[in-house]
Fold:
Amino acid sequence: MANTYSEVWDLDVFFEGGSNSAEFAAHMTAAAEEIAGFKKEVEKWQPSEHQDESARLTSLVEMFDGAARKVRQAGAFVSCLQAQNTQDKKANQLRATVTELSASLQNALTAFDQKLAGFSPEVWEELVKSGLLNELSFVLTERRERAAEKLSGEEESAINALSVDGYHGWGQLYDLLVSNTKIKYKDGDLSVGQAANKLSDTDRSVRKGIFTEWENAWGEKEDFFSKNLNHLAGFRLNVYKLRGWDDVLKEPLDINRMQKETLNAMWEVISDHKVPFVQFLNRKAKLLGLEKLSWYDLDAPIGSTESKLSYQEGADFIVDNFAQFGKEMADFAKMAFENNWIEAEDRPGKAPGGFHTFFPESSQSRIFMTYSGTPSNVSTLAHELGHGFHTYAMRDLHLLNRNYAMNVAETASTFAEMIVSDASLKNSTSKEEKISLLEDKIQRSVALLMNIHARFLFETRFYEERKQGVVNAERLNELMKDAQTEAYGGALEEYHPLFWASKLHFYITGVPFYNFPYTFGYLFSLGIYAMAQEEGRGYEEKYIALLKDSASMPVEELAQKHLNVDLTKKDFWEKAVRMCVEDVEEFLALTE
Ligand SMILES: [Zn+2]
Structure:
């Protein structure tokens, strides 16, 4: 084959020299200057109700845009440095500096938002009637409304400043603890990421052995992790209390621009449909020759089809299948592979997991993961490329109109995953292959309707208990086991009580409740996918239109406008879950 894609990404194109880059140091200085400039202008601004402030406001928005691009560019670069080599100490120092920059930009922005909140509704409406301000009116009005619900500018600034060494400091400590966590395996130690890949090994004794060491490794440090988690949550809860917010879901729902009715309708429908997935897990157990599955069997491949794809094969497979849906998406993926936007090499010292990040000043994406050739690796790769395509679809919009929320972000990524998995299902020739591909697809439903559900149940309950005081490791284990038992419909023999320690999502300080948006995105994209299948190739244009709108309206409105559905009602979710159940029914029939 003529193509040979590099498995190592190119970061030098942004700043040459990695964490010692002089170019990057200069960038950081420039970012600090731009933030200071924006801050000064905001402080000087005394908005008047009696004169036209639109020119002034437009110029402030542009200043913010410039500073924010610089900070995000820096943040993306440091994320990449840290992920590619967890031993890069300089990168960790840079992270701290970027966090300080973000905090000071956040501070200036808080002051800016307070000024927006000062306008009377009538004057405000006039102000955002035309020009750039009109283009940004949803986002700016949202900022104004959020500011009105918060504390005074000074108080919020103090909170932001304290977050650097408090809240965010705890988040960083978690990353450090994880990078120092090794999982024993045969004669050597594995990084957390390498060990996680072994949980899908064909040999049960390998999985079981790894899982035992896995639980041991987290268990040894459980007191550190529980202290970490408790302080993170405590910080968050205290801030909410000061603002007079008593619902811990208020902030995540606001961030995701969705209503609680929507969230409730979604989980209710999921809880109503556990049975088929429990049947699937029971059938899987049977196929593996087991009474019941354990946590470490969930990702076990069934059958002997050890279908590994080389990186090149995986890449070609993704591009070919994206092309079945639309040209833009295929071209985008090809460009990402050709231009070394992806870090996929399987080597020690890398961070676990996968992510997509965007460099706004260069209009380029980077994707991080560890590729070892499994079908789930191919899915992850497609998933992250889906994120990339989302940012790419929005490339001509103003930066402020590109801040889509998590729930919508996961729409594009799961949509991309679905294209790939469905296409391979269609191409499959043998019954055995079909079963294994269907299983891969259902596994995703299990992950989003069971695993993520467990995370949500755990997190809401943990936060309730945390309001009363510190929750110790023993209790955290208990809460997690209960949540998993409920979410998996009691289908497993052994659960993963220390999941609260091993799953980094509970420690992400940028976003609270990093769980339900995944499930939302999955089911939401199933709805879009169903329409795409009905309409064929011409749908890509509509899909891109939806993506473009995805950061400038609430999700209920987005769904109404582009899909003509009401997300607060159960019908939409019933239909989406139904699609997942159909896969299970087909699987059960094929494996009878
Ligand atoms: Zn994602």
Remarks:
- The mean pLDDT is 93.
- The radius of gyration is 24 Å.
- The beta strands are 182-185, 188-191, 342-343, 355-359, 364-368.
